[in-house]
Write a structure and sequence with these properties.
Layout (H helix, E strand, L loop, with lengths): L1 E4 L4 H12 L7 E4 L10 H4 L9 E3 L5 E3 L1 H10 L11 H28 L9 H4 L7 H22 L12 H15 L9 H11 L2 H4 L3
Parallel strand pairs: 1-2
Antiparallel strand pairs: 1-3, 3-4
Helix pairs in contact: 1-3, 1-7, 4-6, 4-7, 6-8
The structure holds glutathione.
Glutathione binds next to helix 1.
Length: about 210
């Protein structure tokens, strides 16, 4: 299997944590995509993922799978022993619900803020991401507020349960963790009163897969 991505970026990290949790590092070859140079907006990469985002998992038969959730489902279920995406219908439903909230209430608003209210990844990429970005700053700043509301939501949740989807670590935790990483990169701090969220972040940072992702 091949993974097209760039190390250190939030969504690639999600899949790299999954690979480490599943001990599958040796099964994957990484191919670096130059995001600041907008390599992922050129025809060769758009043939892999028309949405122009990383990561992309390419299977041996040439199938290209984008979207971290889909990639995670594939990798987690390959050995018939899912540990991150649930094994019962109820577990799967709750994990997917929380995973979606992690994207829609935290990671996505951070991304919109970063790409539309700041210079983002720089001059080569900005024309693809936000051609008239100076006209979108207000909208981008509103997403910053939404991301902070998302942090408060997850903080509230974590006051009563150890992990985002309940009692066990799951892909929803990985998505919130990556969302917070992106927020830090975009200089959106966790509010000081969100002590449960900060404590959870510290706990997740201690996991071997997070300390040493693929
Ligand atoms: N929903 C996508 C998000 C992927 C994504 O936004 N990846 C970022 C890297 S962290 C990216 O490709 N950014 C460059 C761009 O959007 O132009 C997923 O789950 O894979």
């Amino acid at each position: 299997m091949k993974i097209f991505d760039i190390p250190g970026f939030p969504n690639p990290l999600r899949v790299r944590i999954v690979l480490a949790e599943k001990r599958m590092n040796a099964q994957v070859e990484f191919i670096k995509v130059d995001l600041p140079a907008a390599e992922h907006k050129q025809p060769a990469f758009l043939a892999l993922n028309p949405l122009g985002t990383v990561p992309v998992l390419q299977l041996e038969d040439g199938t290209n799978i984008s979207e971290c959730t889909a990639i995670t489902e594939y990798l987690d279920n390959l050995d018939g022993n899912p540990i991150l995406t649930g094994s019962t219908p109820k577990e799967k439903a709750v994990i997917h619900m929380m995973q979606k909230r992690a994207e829609s209430e935290l990671a996505d608003p951070v991304g919109i803020y970063f790409h539309h209210a700041t210079p983002g990844l720089g001059a080569a990429l900005q024309p693809y991401k936000s051609p008239d970005w100076e006209g979108r700053v207000d909208w981008g700043n509103r997403q910053r507020e939404r991301a902070i509301d998302g942090m408060k939501y997850f903080d509230h949740l974590l006051r009563n349960q150890p992990y985002i989807a309940g009692d066990a670590f799951s892909m929803a935790d990985i998505t919130v963790f990556a969302g917070l990483l992106f927020a830090g990169f975009a200089s959106i701090d966790i509010p000081v009163e969100c002590t449960a969220l900060s404590a959870w972040q510290t706990k997740v940072q201690q996991r071997p897969s997070v300390k040493n992702p693929a």
